[in-house]
Structure formats: structure tokens, C-alpha cells
Inverse folding.
């Protein structure tokens, strides 16, 4: 149980900056997901918190204590690695006990905690097996178990589900969420999978190029992306970003904040039928129709040559090549400035 | 397992293609080995005119002979010392190099050089350095009050051959240990660090156990090396002396057979060595092939 504070945290590899000054406060018991494309510095940030990477400048506080100079072992954290990092020559039980034994925990206490963790994760029958005798999902559980038995101040997850197949990933995602709710342990979770990020996080930290683009709850980030990058990164299919000139060339004008030259519209906010409120209408041709079950994705090329994606329910009876008009309500538009990359209708948060 | 199979239309051709290798094996390995086994059951008169078949007398005599039993003891001492010394030093060097990130290629290259030196040259090198009359090492040691003379002192002689033989083998062990260390995933030591294990504990509880296949392989190779490949080093430094102090089994075969001209006993000794090699090879195949399990 602890808070984590990152103050102006920076990391350079030689002359190359990897993390360029991060400020973040994690409340006690909160699950924060760091999400971003590969190379954005999210893993480096996590490893700095773990003490596996040195810090170039800035402060890391865990439970109010500055730990920048502390060894990983002294930080009272547990980490779940992408490749699980289970000790292959030890049985599952020995894997779970290792950290406790190193800390001189009494035998009865070790047994109790291992039994509890095994119950929670349902790995009791596997305690005497070696990691290589386990499936991917089971190894993942053991890796979680190794973190749980320590009863640390914070959990650090480094893309823990990326080695699992799609079905298992969904299942483990749900379990991690339940487990974290139950244990109420402060957690930092790194992933590049935005679906994982959206479903797990209490708050999301969207990172790009070593900087934080936006911090907020998943709903906040989805509903009001602070920057063009976040708008394009969160959401699948991604938000359509249409230049204001494109709108103007289609003969559409609308009230926009000063400095807006790009508007973003979510694929499911674009409609073929005209909506009730004030809206714009853009003529185009259907390039591609992708039925994906309950909904379909419609790729429409607008008059200015730009393609937008509509997400429409069911399977619309439209042929590829047909001429359609795409409608978007004014209220659903996100105005951005191309130059600053930020929203123009509000003071963006970070 | 899928194998590539070539079908020869001519029945004779495959045998013809095998002939050179078979000839080499038969002439240089099987035939001399058979001769050694045959001679080990015979006694030859001093002038080589007459040989008598004497069953196991060479062997029974061998094992009641004090010098032979002494040689067995010296060999055990020598082999164990060389194996432990060269393996522990090379592991230490490998761990050190593995920690250095930028210059480790340079260190690796430098540390591999001794392996390219021929055993006899190694022997001469150390003989020079430790030569009681002209060597630098005894000169320095005299300054420290140590009197070194491997020509007179059996212990000094044994130390010298152990040092020389270990030095040459360090390179080989080092390469294998470096490769072994690099195959231990970084994340395991990181996980252990988070689990509260200090560097020393991490090494002994995580890295070393994971190195065990490499260590076991090297153990067998080093025993083999110390027992059979060190002839050149012994010959160039001590020639088995003083007073049998460094007369290891493989050197004694040569000394008794070619210098002492006791062909029967020498042959019996080489048959004993052959059995040891066979046993070591069997162990190696049995366990190294299967790998030390973890």
C-alpha cells in the first residue's frame, strides 16, 4: 500500500534522451496503465521505477520515500516480466518462495503466503512442477503469484500478456483486473495494446517520444483526447482526422475555435443519414466495405481525396463504388491545431 | 528425425567413398590399439628376440608396483587441481567480462590467445619463467624469501605443471563460460534482484545452476585434457621428475615404453588408460547428450 510519485524524471542513453521529463502521481491502490507505441519510453520508465535502469535526473518516490538511489530489492516492489522470468531450475513453489527466503521471512509465514497465492491463482496442483512443464497461461499465473506472495507496496507489470494468445490474453486481463481490485495494490502497468489499456486502467498515461501526451481515465482520454497523437492512437478504428480545408472545399463551414485546422471525428460518430443537430455533410465514394460481425467498417473517399472510416451497425446494403454522403454532428467534432498538435477548444491538461 | 538419404546405384561406390576414412581409422587407431592390447599380454626379452605370452602378469605386476600406484595418485592430484583451477579462474574471468559491456570483445580476444599456443611451447614458456637458474619467477620469489626449485622439490614441480597446464586450458573454458553466461536471460537476474538477492546470491542461486550444462561438459573435457593432453607440458618442463613427482600416467606410458623399453608394462598401462578414456566418453555421452536437467 503506497503512493508513487514521479517528479521530472529523465533518462538519457548517452546523448539520446529516452524519457524526457515525466511527472506522475499514482494514488494508493490505483492501477495506472502506461500506453504508447514501441520506443515511447514506457518500458524504460517502468524499469526506472523498478530500479533496473539508472535515473539521469528527477525523483522517484514510493510511499513518500525517495528511492532513486535504492537497490531494486529495497524499493518494496514486485515486477511481472513480459517473458515471465521464472527461474527454470526451481519448482513453482521454490519460485514463489525465493523472494521471501531472501528476506528472511519465517517458514510458517512463507507457507501461509504461498498457500494463499496458490489458492487465489488456482495454481495449487502445480506447485511441485517446473516452469517448463506449464502452459503459457499457467506460467503467467506463477509470475503473478511470485509478485503477490511478496505483498509489496506496488506491482509493476511490463507487458505481461503480450506472449499469450488472443483468447488467453482477454481472460488473463480480466483476472489481473479482479486481482488488483481485490488486493488494492498500487500498480503500474505497461502495454502497447490500447484495448488492454482501456479495460484495465483506473487512469491512462498515454506516452509518445519520451513525453506524456495525456493523463486521464480511459473514458476521459477517449472522449476528449488532448492531442492529435492521442486522438489517432486511442480508439479502433482510429479517429478520422479531417483538415478544415477539406471541409471548406466541400462547401461546409462550421463554428470552430481559433487556430483549428484539423477536426477529429470518431468512426462511430459519422453517419450516412443526416442527424438531427447541426452537422456537416460530405460527399464521397465507398472504397471498401469490411463486415466484422455486429458492425461494418466503411471506407469512404471524400472529395479532397482523403479516406475516412465509418463504423456502422449491422451490414449495410451498399456496393463498393457507390456515392454516399457522410454526416458529422458539430457537437461530435474534436478541434485540433496542426501546429501545436493540441486541442483548440480547451486548456489541454498536461 | 528426417535425414537426407542418397541412393547409390552402384553397390561398390559407397564403400569406396568410405575407404579413406576407414583406412585412416584402421591404420592409425584400431591397429595400434589392438597391438597394444596384444603386447600387454606378452613379455619381450631385452633384445627383442623372443616374446612370451604371459596372460595378465603385466597387469598384476602393475598394480602391485609402488611407482605405478604413485603415478595414479599424482595423476589424480594433477587432474583434479588443473580442472578446478582452470575452471574456477575461467569462470571468474567470464563473469567479469560478461559484466563489462563495451570492451568485452577485446578482453575475449585477448583471453583466447593462450589456447593457440602449442602444449610444448607452453611448457617451455613456463620452464623459462620458473627456471631456478635463469627464470624471473624464482628470482622474485627469492626476494620474498621463498626458495623455488622444481628440479629438486617435488611439490614445486607439481605446482609448476599444474600452473602451466591450467593456464593453457583457461582460454577454452572461458569461451564456453562466456557463451553459457550470455544464454542466461537478463530478466532472470533482474527478477532475482527485485526478489532481494544480492549480486553474490544471484550468481550462486540463479546463474550458476543455469550454467550447469556448460560446467558439466567442461568438467569432463578438462579431466580428459589434464589426463591425456598434457604430455607436451610435462615433457618440456619436468619430464616426470624429480623422483617421479610429476610422472602422470600418460607420461609414464611413454617413459616406461620408449625410455625404459619395457614394452609389455607400457602396453598394459596404455590399455588401462584406454579403459579410462572409454569410461569418460561413456559418461559424457550419457549425461551431456541428455544435458543436466533443470
Amino acid at each position: 500500500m503506497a503512493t508513487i510519485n514521479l517528479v521530472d524524471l529523465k533518462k538519457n542513453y548517452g546523448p539520446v534522451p529516452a524519457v524526457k521529463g515525466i511527472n506522475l502521481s499514482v494514488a494508493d491502490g490505483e492501477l495506472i496503465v502506461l500506453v504508447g507505441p514501441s520506443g515511447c519510453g514506457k518500458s524504460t520508465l517502468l524499469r526506472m521505477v523498478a530500479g533496473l535502469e539508472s535515473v539521469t535526473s528527477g525523483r522517484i518516490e514510493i510511499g513518500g520515500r525517495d528511492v532513486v538511489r535504492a537497490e531494486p530489492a529495497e524499493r518494496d516492489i514486485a515486477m511481472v516480466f513480459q517473458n515471465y522470468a521464472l527461474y527454470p531450475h526451481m519448482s513453482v513453489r521454490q519460485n514463489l518462495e525465493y523472494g521471501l527466503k531472501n528476506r528472511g521471512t519465517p517458514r510458517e509465514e512463507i507457507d501461509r503466503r504461498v498457500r494463499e497465492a496458490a489458492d487465489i491463482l488456482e495454481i495449487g496442483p502445480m506447485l511441485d512442477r517446473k516452469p517448463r512443464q506449464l502452459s503459457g497461461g499457467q506460467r503467467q499465473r506463477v509470475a503473478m503469484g511470485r509478485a503477490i506472495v511478496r505483498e509489496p507496496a506496488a506491482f509493476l507489470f511490463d507487458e505481461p500478456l503480450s506472449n499469450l494468445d488472443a483468447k488467453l490474453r482477454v481472460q488473463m486481463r480480466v483476472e489481473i483486473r479482479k486481482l488488483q481490485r481485490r488486493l488494492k495494490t498500487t500498480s503500474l502497468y505497461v502495454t502497447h495494446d490500447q484495448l488492454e489499456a482501456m479495460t484495465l486502467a483506473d487512469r491512462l498515461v498515454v506516452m509518445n517520444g519520451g513525453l506524456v501526451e495525456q493523463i486521464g481515465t480511459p473514458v476521459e482520454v477517449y472522449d476528449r483526447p488532448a492531442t492529435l497523437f492521442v486522438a489517432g492512437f486511442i480508439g479502433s478504428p482510429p479517429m478520422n482526422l479531417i483538415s478544415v480545408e477539406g471541409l471548406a472545399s466541400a462547401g461546409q463551414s462550421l463554428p470552430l475555435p481559433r487556430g483549428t485546422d484539423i477536426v477529429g471525428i470518431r468512426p462511430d460518430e459519422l453517419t450516412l443519414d443526416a442527424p438531427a443537430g447541426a452537422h456537416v455533410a460530405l460527399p464521397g465514394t465507398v472504397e471498401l466495405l469490411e463486415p466484422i460481425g455486429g458492425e461494418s467498417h466503411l471506407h469512404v473517399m471524400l472529395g479532397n481525396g482523403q479516406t475516412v472510416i465509418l463504423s456502422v451497425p449491422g451490414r449495410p446494403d451498399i456496393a463498393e463504388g457507390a456515392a454516399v454522403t457522410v454526416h458529422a454532428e458539430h457537437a461530435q467534432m474534436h478541434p485540433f491545431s496542426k501546429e501545436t498538435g493540441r486541442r483548440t477548444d480547451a486548456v489541454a491538461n498536461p | 528425425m528426417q535425414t537426407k538419404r542418397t541412393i547409390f546405384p552402384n553397390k561398390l561406390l559407397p564403400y569406396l567413398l568410405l575407404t579413406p576414412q576407414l583406412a585412416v581409422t584402421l591404420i592409425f587407431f584400431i591397429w595400434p590399439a589392438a597391438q597394444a592390447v596384444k603386447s600387454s599380454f606378452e613379455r619381450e626379452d631385452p633384445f627383442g628376440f623372443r616374446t612370451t605370452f604371459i596372460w595378465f602378469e603385466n597387469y598384476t605386476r602393475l598394480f602391485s608396483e609402488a611407482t605405478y600406484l604413485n603415478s595414479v595418485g599424482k595423476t589424480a592430484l594433477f587432474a583434479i587441481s588443473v580442472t578446478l583451477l582452470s575452471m574456477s579462474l575461467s569462470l571468474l574471468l567470464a563473469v567479469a567480462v560478461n559484466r563489462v559491456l563495451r570492451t568485452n570483445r577485446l578482453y575475449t580476444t585477448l583471453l583466447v590467445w593462450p589456447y593457440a599456443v602449442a602444449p610444448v611451447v607452453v611448457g617451455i614458456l613456463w620452464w623459462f619463467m620458473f627456471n631456478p637458474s635463469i627464470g624471473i619467477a624464482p628470482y622474485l620469489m627469492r626476494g620474498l624469501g621463498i626458495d623455488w626449485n622444481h628440479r629438486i622439490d617435488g611439490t614445486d614441480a607439481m605446482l609448476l605443471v599444474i600452473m602451466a597446464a591450467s593456464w593453457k586450458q583457461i582460454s577454452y573454458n572461458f569461451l564456453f563460460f562466456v557463451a553459457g553466461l550470455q544464454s542466461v536471460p537478463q530478466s532472470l537476474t533482474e527478477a532475482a534482484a527485485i526478489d532481494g538477492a544480492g549480486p553474490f546470491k544471484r550468481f550462486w542461486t540463479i546463474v550458476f545452476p543455469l550454467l550447469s550444462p556448460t560446467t558439466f561438459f567442461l568438467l569432463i573435457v578438462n579431466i580428459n585434457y589434464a589426463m591425456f593432453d598434457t604430455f607436451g607440458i610435462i615433457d618440456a618442463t619436468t619430464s616426470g621428475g624429480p623422483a617421479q613427482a610429476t610422472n602422470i600416467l600418460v607420461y609414464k606410458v611413454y617413459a616406461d615404453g620408449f625410455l625404459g623399453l619395457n614394452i609389455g608394462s607400457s602396453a598394459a598401462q596404455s590399455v588401462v588408460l584406454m579403459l579410462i578414456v572409454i569410461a569418460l566418453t561413456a559418461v559424457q555421452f550419457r549425461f551431456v547428450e541428455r544435458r543436466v536437467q533443470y
